[in-house]
Design brief:
Bound molecules: ligand C2E, magnesium ion
Distance between the termini: 53 Å
Oligomer: single chain
Structural class: alpha/beta
Shape: globular
Helix content: 40-55%
Number of strands: 9
Number of helices: 9
Largest sheet: 8 strands, mixed, barrel
Strand order of the largest sheet: 1-2-4-5-6-7-8-9
Length: 279
């Protein structure tokens, strides 16, 4: 294709790559300053129980307002942080802040859990489970109020054995393990039993565009997850219609703009609880 379209195209193809490369490099450089310069902060989005209508957890979502590059979405900078191993320090900071914040909001006696996204790159660092254990001790958050979200990529790489051991260790401590973006990978359904998992989170792409194919994936995922004794969370719910369809399919918990957008403060106006029919 590139050859066929002649010299001019080859040139623009190369320069497009170059621009992307330069952008990644700039992000990588700026990201090194992000933590010391206080450019990172967290937002929290409620996860709502389907039966109770109550906030069961908050998912922590990392935000970066770069002095140099402006606001950069996590889908763009997290992969770069993962490549350079910066994600290890950033990820530890995220988890510590998240544990402290959820305690600030609800106290030690009980309250919503906090769900932290964790990259494979963090899990394979020696003594990751120990680091988490120490964080829980340091902050005072009970282990059963921490959820670790990992993507299906944990099944794609050759270190599934190590990852499985680390996650089992955390699971034994009481930490919940959730599989994020469920349905976007290819090898996970048959491998779910290899890792101690408590819940799967169906990827928002299936919910945002719930056509007949997406519906089949969602129904299949719910069937299999429930068969394995796992809960099912649906993310990306933007409308009441999506919520009620997912309720009918048997989803256990909801997350999405319909309930609340990610925010720096706790959700103190659970509008969906006001009408009985919404739950
Ligand atoms: P994720 O873990 O699947 O998080 C859910 C994403 O869906 C978030 O995007 C959230 O803002 C968005 N979302 C929630 N409800 C809706 C909705 O109703 N409609 C739509 N269209 N989107 C919705 P966000 O915040 O941009 O984060 C993107 C991804 O970046 C996350 O996907 C996660 O994979 C990664 N990420 C975010 N924070 C961290 C972190 O601290 N560590 C790591 N390793 N990854 C993170
Ligand atoms: Mg997540
Ligand atoms: Mg997701
Ligand atoms: Mg994701």
């Amino acid at each position: 294709e590139v050859k066929r379209s002649g010299r001019g195209s080859v040139h623009s193809y190369d320069s497009k790559l170059l621009v992307e490369q330069e952008r990644r490099l700039a992000i990588n450089q700026a990201l090194r300053q992000a933590m010391p310069s206080d450019e990172l902060y967290l937002e929290y989005q409620p996860v709502v129980g389907a039966k109770t209508g109550e906030i069961e957890a908050y998912e922590v979502l990392l935000r970066w307002e770069s002095g140099e590059l402006g606001r950069i979405p996590p889908d763009e900078f997290i992969p770069i942080a993962e490549e350079s191993a910066l994600i290890v320090d950033i990820g530890e900071w995220v988890m510590r802040e998240a544990c402290k914040t959820i305690l600030d909001w609800s106290g030690f006696a009980g309250g919503p859990k906090v769900a932290v996204n964790v990259s494979v790159r963090q899990i394979v660092v020696p003594r990751f489970a120990r680091m988490v254990e120490n964080l829980l001790l340091e902050t005072g958050l009970p282990a059963n109020r921490l959820i670790i979200e990992v993507t299906e990529s944990i099944f794609d790489i050759r270190r599934t054995q190590l990852i499985s051991e680390v996650l089992s260790d955390l699971h034994d401590q009481g930490v919940e393990i959730h599989i994020d973006d469920f349905g976007t990978g290819y090898s996970s359904l048959s491998r779910l039993h290899q890792i101690r998992v408590d819940a799967v989170k169906i990827d928002k792409s299936f919910i945002l565009n719930m056509d007949i194919n997406a519906r089949a994936v969602i129904e299949g995922a719910i069937l299999i997850a429930h068969r394995f004794g796992l809960d099912v969370i649906a993310e990306g719910i933007e409308t009441e219609q999506q919520r009620s369809e997912l309720a009918a399919m048997g989803v256990d918990a909801y997350q999405g703009y319909f309930f609340a957008r990610p925010s720096s403060s706790p959700c103190d106006d659970p509008h969906w609880q006001k009408t009985e029919s919404n739950v």
